[in-house]
Design brief:
Layout: E1 9-12, E2 15-18, E3 24-28, H1 36-42, H2 47-55, E4 57-62, H3 69-78, H4 82-85, E5 91-94, E6 99-102, H5 114-120, E7 125-129, H6 135-138, E8 149-153, H7 170-174, H8 184-200, E9 205-209, H9 213-217, H10 223-241, E10 245-249, E11 255-256, E12 266-268, H11 269-277, E13 283-285, E14 302-306, H12 313-321, E15 326-331, H13 332-339, E16 349-353, E17 358-360, E18 376-377, E19 385-390, H14 407-413
Parallel strand pairs: 3-9, 3-10, 7-8, 7-9, 12-17
Antiparallel strand pairs: 1-2, 4-19, 5-6, 10-19, 11-18, 13-14, 14-16, 15-16
The protein binds zinc ion.
């Protein structure tokens, strides 16, 4: 940022960020369980990652719980936990209206984004996300026109937006055909767009967010995963050559959630609670549920349960804790304190499952027909550790416990 009147610091949600001296790119590598990058390096297919890890920064951070995509992307882009920004999942149950409400709409967002704060301070900003579900949230508040902000999704790159996102013809600009929403190509489009934006627009600050299609299908070191990270490696090399400061982290990790014979290993909570309390007395919410369920069947490791007032939640928690596969069952207040969640968007009880167990409602309520590989998913404590890497060295206080939503702080305040 070289504008004569640009401030040296930008404050957003109580955190101060330095104006970048070089174009700065923060990347969310969706579902990047530690090990994917290392194994691609070991296979000799990620020389750029290898160089970053060696000469730049190679750290780990904790994501927010639930270790789902939207809460973590919003934490990264606001620099704060869900208690501040309000997005605790893809949807929540609102007892006041007795409805299950999608949280994809920006009206549920309670904090401004770092990108907006930088645009307001005079910086040129850009945001590209894989799935369209995140676009409105991540680009909330940006003002288009004059090339000062550009924001679009790969999924809807064909939309005739007529400059509403800062650009008229995204497909023409990126020079690639529209990718399939369930493909590695959706994330490749994000990177191709990022490189193109850096070449043509050179934003001061850019956020790129991929999708975890590959990680839901294949574990670290598999041919599919190595191909994916080798593809990313090539684009990182370009961004690095373009002179960008690059800071990459992830929204969550990923684990196998299936039995030895490849069937999903699921604890069906509605079935269990219907048996204990009577049919439909408890309402189980799986906040991973979204319009794109094909690759996980709405099965993750985090659930929240609403129970009628007559039910003793404490006693129920005691019974739940004894169920195999339950890692944690907590009352709302304790869960919100521990995980920094917004209490009005969380049920009476929060349940988290163990590493290889998924949580469901009832077998008949999950469409698993789109699951063509053994289930891999996320949402719990066992998918909370994520990588933090950079092409630059980072100066970080000794003993500092990193969160993935420190990404902009690290990229803007800690690069050396
Ligand atoms: Zn994700």
């Amino acid at each position: 940022m070289t504008g004569r009147h640009a401030p040296e610091q930008v404050t957003c949600n109580g955190r101060a960020y330095a104006m970048p001296r070089a174009p700065t790119v923060v990347i969310c590598l969706d579902g990047s369980e530690p090990g994917y990058i290392e194994k691609t390096i070991a296979a000799g297919r990620a020389p750029t990652f290898a160089r970053f890890l060696q000469d730049g920064a190679n750290l780990h951070a904790q994501s927010v719980i639930p270790s789902f995509t939207n809460p973590n992307n919003l934490s990264i882009i606001t620099g704060r936990p869900p208690a501040v920004h309000g997005i605790a999942g893809n949807f929540f149950y609102d007892p006041a209206t007795n409805t299950e409400v999608m949280m994809n709409d920006p009206r549920f967002l309670r904090a401004p984004t770092i990108l907006k704060a930088f645009q307001d301070a005079g910086a040129k900003v850009a945001m590209v996300t894989a799935k369209d579900k995140l676009r409105l949230l991540l680009s909330h508040g940006l003002a288009y026109g004059g090339g000062r902000a550009i924001a679009f999704s790969a999924e809807r790159a064909d939309a005739a937006t007529r400059g509403l996102n800062g650009i008229d013809d995204v497909l023409g600009f990126v020079g690639r055909p529209l990718p399939d929403v369930y493909s590695a190509g959706l994330s490749e489009f994000v990177f191709a767009a990022g490189v193109r934006l850096m070449a043509e627009v050179r934003p001061d600050l850019m956020y790129l967010s991929t999708t975890d299609y590959v990680q839901h299908k294949a574990g670290p070191g598999t041919p599919l995963a190595n191909d994916f990270y080798a593809m990313i490696d090539g684009y990182l090399a370009e961004l690095d050559r373009q002179g960008a400061v690059i800071l990459a982290t992830a929204d969550h990790g990923m684990n196998d959630k299936h039995t030895e014979d490849g069937a999903p290993d699921v604890l069906y909570l509605k079935t269990l609670l219907d048996g204990w309390l009577g049919r439909d007395r408890a309402r189980v919410i799986l906040p991973i549920t979204d319009p794109y369920v094909a690759h996980h069947g709405a099965l993750g490791s985090f659930a929240t349960v609403h129970v009628p007032e007559a039910v003793d939640a404490g006693e129920l928690i005691g019974r739940l804790e004894a169920v195999p596969g339950v890692e944690l069952a907590l009352p709302r207040a304790e869960a919100c304190r521990r995980f920094e969640l917004p209490p009005d968007r969380i049920g009476d009880i929060v349940i988290i499952s163990t590493r290889h167990k998924a949580l469901g409602t009832a077998p008949e309520l999950h469409d698993l027909s789109g699951l063509d590989e053994p289930l891999r998913s996320h949402g719990g404590l066992t998918e909370q550790r994520v990588p933090v890497l950079s092409n630059r060295r980072l100066a970080i206080a000794q003993g500092r416990a990193l969160r993935n939503y420190d990404a902009f702080d690290l990229a803007l305040n800690c690069v050396t």
